[in-house]
Write a structure and sequence with these properties.
Layout (H helix, E strand, L loop, with lengths): L1 H9 L5 H13 L4 H6 L3 H10 L12 H9 L4 H4 L2 H15 L11 H11 L7 H13 L6 H8 L7
Helix pairs in contact: 7-9, 7-10
Length: 160
């Protein structure tokens, strides 16, 4: 119940009906941040990250309509959406669609796979599991961790 109240405070500028919808989404996602974030529109993603102190750099496409038309025109996603929101979106999209053992396909795959085995993190592909693995690599100062983010923001799939 506290998480729903907290969610209401984040999106307080939204209508009561929209807040209720967001609370339902949070509940159906069982509090899994990645799945929740992936289902938010770009404006709500910005609101959420700004609430957590992330400075969002503006793009020239500020409205839903402008972004939609830019996508239809074939513009690059990183030109349409703010980098801060979109890189997280791409990471979570990759995370929710790939098992962690697919790090094996990265250039430093053998090293990353050994570190994954040592980490005892569940290989199931979720934002939580991928984030835990990434943070464990960061805490160990493993520079190869950047390959995960590079792959997530590229147009390539992690799986072969």
């Amino acid at each position: 119940h506290e998480s729903l109240e907290y969610l209401s405070s984040i999106f307080e500028k939204e209508s009561k009906q929209r807040i209720s919808h967001l609370q339902d989404q949070w509940h159906t996602k069982e509090g899994e941040f990645g799945s929740f974030y992936l289902n938010l529109d770009a404006g709500l993603q910005e609101t959420l990250l700004e609430h957590f102190g992330v400075t969002i750099h503006p793009t020239k496409y500020t409205t839903y309509h402008e972004r939609f038309l830019a996508q239809l025109d074939g513009k690059n996603e990183f030109d349409i959406f703010p980098f801060q929101t979109h890189v997280l979106y791409r990471f979570l999209l990759m995370a929710n669609n790939n098992s962690l053992d697919t790090v094996e396909n990265l250039p430093s795959g053998k090293l990353l796979m050994n570190l994954l085995k040592d980490s005892q993190i569940d290989y199931y592909g979720t934002g939580v599991n991928w984030s835990r693995f990434y943070v464990s690599l960061e805490m160990q100062a493993i520079p190869e961790r950047k390959e995960i983010i590079e792959h997530a923001i590229s147009d390539h799939k992690l799986s072969p």
